[in-house]
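Hi R.,

Here's the chain you asked about this morning:
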Amino acid sequence: MWEYKNGNYIVRILDDGTKFRLSDNPVPEIPESIDVKITNKCDGGCAFCHEKSTPDGKSFNVNLAYRLFKELPGGVELAIGGGNPLECLQDLRWLDRKLQYNGLIKNITINAKHLDMFNNCYLGLEAIGVSYNKNLHKEIKEFSDKEKEYHQIVVHLIAGVHTTEDLKRCLEDFDRVLILGYKQFGRGIEYYGKDVEDSLTDWKQNIGQYLRGKDKIVVFDNLAITQLDVKRYFSDIRWKDIYMGNDGQFTMYLDLVEEKFAVSSRSPGRFDIGDMSIKEMFAKVRSKK
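And here is the predicted structure, written out as tokens:
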């Protein structure tokens, strides 16, 4: 379990990831979770990549990352991604050694195409997000069966790119699924078209049937919540219990490649990190959300 003070309230996180805010009106001073981009290098070639990652993309300054993260209390979550973050294994291992006693919750997202790069990573991770590829379903299942003893495995699906049939298949084989909204950002602008629109319509019409299971965990990012109108399936009281807040309310985005920060990864308004601290950046994010 993790517990820390954040502004006027206490954050408590159980070992299974369940989070509690011990206040009726929490006002945070630091983000509870930070979406961290560490590289724009990736050979995945996804046509919808909102980060426009390429095989020759740049990577982060590990010393800057250490300066920013070393002051954070244990329990703050870092969602590390890219690009392909496994391109930065040496720097990630160094950062993990430097921060190993800080108690930060470190998660990583990797593409299913790069599962073979994960062997013996030793990064002190709590969870591994795997971007789904239906052609690699068997490989993802084998990876999950091997790693779930040591990490939470969360399969990521993008509404509009993946289908509800993909979701159905994933829920048969995986315990945790994260549904992401479609980002009309980066290469996602050009990729967007009738096929994506039709897929989003199907998701919106049928997502309710996948929220009734008791033995699987299905979660959504804020964009998917909006695009699929997820709130309609819950009472106001239940929604208040499970909704974790708007983008920028308890979270922020940190691009350590371009050394900028923003409310979220799809925010056009981005600001230079410079010599600012996480606390200072988050205050600016909250003023812009």
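One quick note: The chain has a mean pLDDT of 94.

Cheers,
M.
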